[in-house]
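Thread: "does anyone have the structure for this chain?"

Original post by V.I.:
We have the sequence but no experimental structure in hand. Need at least a predicted one for the grant figures.
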Amino acid sequence: MITSDTSRSVAHDLRHLLCTIRLTAEMLENSEHDATVRRAQRIIRAVDNGTEICTGILSANRPETEAEPAPISIAFSVRDLLRDVAAGLHPPEGVVIRVRCPSDIEVDHDRASLFRAIFNLATNAVRAIEGHGGSQVTLCAQRLDGRLVLSVEDDGPGLEKTKGAAPSPITLGPKSEGLGLGLVKSLVAATGGTFRCAKTSDAGTTFRIVLPLGRPEPAPRHAPKTGVLAS
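Reply from O.Q.:
Generated one for you, tokens below.
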């Protein structure tokens, strides 16, 4: 007989596995080959369906007094995360992707949300500088005053000169519908962080994500939703 605790444990573990599969599929979705993109999108749809089933099992077996389940999060290397983002990009010839991050930074946050937010910012930066005077996108991470600061920097001509050239504010890949900056803010806010455009000028643009180094406390069940913070 499968107990409630057993089903919850299995559903939780499956969500972790599905998270990894989805991240890989999102990178494949950025392929230049239409067949690969279509297959990746089918995988993503299937993974999302599976995740909904797991979430339903967790919700159905959760006591009324228990808090909402926290986003999928385990300790991970920030440098590995940035390297995974860089590996999933397909910059044109002449555009270089760089990663600057100490090897010893680890955080316990929702890796999937952070990956999506940084990947979309980096993809947009590549497209914004292509053919517009830029040649480099840098993914940075550092500790500052007990927080983790993540930056996506480019050396292009700035948002005002490229906003008409880049397709949509933030995009997942050449075949994707894309995500807006508002949704990127929401992804970051879900991890307890803040997001803003730190600078934009004819010397380049920097988007910055600031996160607590520890895992944020999950909100109590039925707690009122708070707005997205920006600094």
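V.I.: this helps a lot. The radius of gyration is 19 Å.
O.Q.: and Residues 34-60 form the longest helix (27 residues).
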